[in-house]
Amino acid sequence: MPVQVVARAGAPDAIVTALVVGLDDPDLLEEPQPLAAMAIAATSAAIDRRVTARRSWLGTGQNGRRSSAISIVSVQLDWTQDELLATDPVIEPLVAAGRRCHGGFAADGRYVSPRTQGRIPAIEAWQSAHVTAGGTLVAAPIDEWPEPYPNVAQSRYLLEEDVSDLVVTTLTRIGTVEGFGGLIRHAAVEGLQRHFDDSIAATTLAHLTSGLFEAHARDETGHGDEAGHKEMWFAARDIAFDRPFTDDETARMLDRMGIPAGALNSSGPPPDAATVRAALEAQRVHDDLDPAFEAMIRRMLGLMFIEVSAFHTFAWAEELLGDDALAAGDGEAARLVSYIRTDETPHVEYLRTAISEIRDRTLVGESGRRHEGRAVIDRLWAIGRAESLGPRRDALRQSTLAELECALAGNPRADEIRGGFHERGSLRPTLGGLEAVKEGA
Hints:
Blueprint: E1 3-8, E2 15-22, E3 53-57, E4 69-76, H1 81-84, E5 92-96, E6 99-105, E7 111-112, H2 119-132, H3 152-160, H4 165-180, H5 212-221, H6 229-240, H7 247-256, H8 273-283, H9 291-321, H10 332-359, E8 362-364, E9 370-372, H11 373-389, H12 391-408, H13 414-423, E10 427-430, E11 433-436
Antiparallel strand pairs: 1-2, 2-4, 3-4, 5-6, 6-7, 8-9, 10-11
């Protein structure tokens, strides 16, 4: 059905009302004129069941034809923190390795992610409003990130050879990195509007410090008596290898990877202001942007790149841990990872939406000068992408090689297993580090 959306801006409580008119018989209705520059959706399909709608049919025309349809659709763009942190009711909680986790299961057995009752429709509404107003949503560049190291074939080979330590350590590292996501609550910048020449009312940006950052942090580190992703990854590890790993064992694994035990506490108080300011100044890229504001943008970009890369990790873990010949628990560990993957989708979506809103606005520097958001985001994007795919990934791969040697220490077949491991990968160790295998080599 052809559809036109007419939006009324400035409605109470940032509710934008759209008049959706079906033109099955255009002779019966004059084409309505837009009442505001911003329309919330281009088609009725863009507004799904989670957005409140009231439809009434105006009757039928000659020969029983439906003449026209009008839908009054109220799209909420302003949300309270309580709404953004709300969880849909579940009939059964998620329990993993004896630990109550966030989320749960609906009556039909479907997994329900935490804190998405309002968050998902809110993000969808902000995305639709941004695009309809002429903005562009940046893409989540999943295909730009390579497969995990070790890959599925390498990990499977090690487990078949009864060398499990590298996979155990990898799962431990993944859970720890997830826990670092809780630090996003400390990246919040109050009074965000002062950094923009354009209004940020009724946008994702306006809700970062009133629900979105906190929801993200709780998803990763847990909240109250409910475990989050960090503990869920540890539970998947323990289930798959049929034994609980102690905190001391976990700490030793992290220590070998250069991650101090104290780094696990992302829910504590933020560092003192002087330390933060010195760190921000050292990392500053734009000399006229407020350092804390720029750091928040960089943190958001870094997290989005981690989340994007993580989707390859989810595929690795679900395939490996879902194989009953390799992992214990009858697939429970793989299902647990799939729940985490479901939880991560709104993280990518709100981050890329907020980044897009910054990119399509004019920013205000400390001097009062105006800066094109596109130029700022594109520069920080390039820096963050290069760091993620360059030095950080190289360091992670070198750490993985060190863990492989630790796992093979004392094994009489170490040379044979090491060779089999490298044969199943796309990288080979050289004197200068790991290099991609040339095609046909």
